[in-house]
Amino acid sequence: MRSYSIIGLGQFGMSVARMLADVQRDGIAAYDLDMRNVEAIKEFVAVAALLDATDKASLVSQGVDRDDVAIIAIGGNFQASTLATMNCKEIGVR
């Protein structure tokens, strides 16, 4: 079973998290900077938490480096999306 991290829980990220959770609940982690989004998804995924993906140490502390796939769904801030993607690549996520 693959493990997934969805980073960014706007409309797209929330849809991806719910779709993956329909297939497998275990192994799905969802992160966002807005606690309302985290609260909205927590019953559907194994892990839901606040996370600043622009901080590499935060990604590692949540175990994102051990996941098979990271889906960056940060749509409102191109800089944050790019930095989150670079951080995930640097810590070894595909």
Strand content: 15-25%
Residue windows where pLDDT falls under 50 for at least 5 positions: none
Approximately how much helix is present in the residues?
40-55%
What is the H/E order?
Answer: EHEHEHEH
Entry summary:
This protein is 41% helix and 18% strand. It is α/β, with parallel strands linked by helices. Strands 3-2-1-4 form a four-stranded parallel β-sheet, sandwiched between helices.
Task: Describe the protein's architecture and organization.
With 94 residues, the protein is an alpha/beta fold. It has a single domain, classed as NAD(P)-binding Rossmann-like Domain (Rossmann fold), CATH 3.40.50. The protein is 41% helix and 18% strand. The chain contains four helices and four strands. It has a four-stranded parallel beta sheet, sandwiched between helices. Strand 2, helix 2 (35-41) and strand 3 (47-50) form a beta-alpha-beta unit. The model has no long low-confidence stretch (mean pLDDT 95).
Name its key features.
4 strands; single chain; Rossmann fold; alpha/beta; 94 residues
Task: Provide the fold topology.
Blueprint: E1 4-7, H1 11-23, E2 28-32, H2 35-41, E3 47-50, H3 56-61, E4 69-72, H4 78-90
Parallel strand pairs: 1-2, 1-4, 2-3
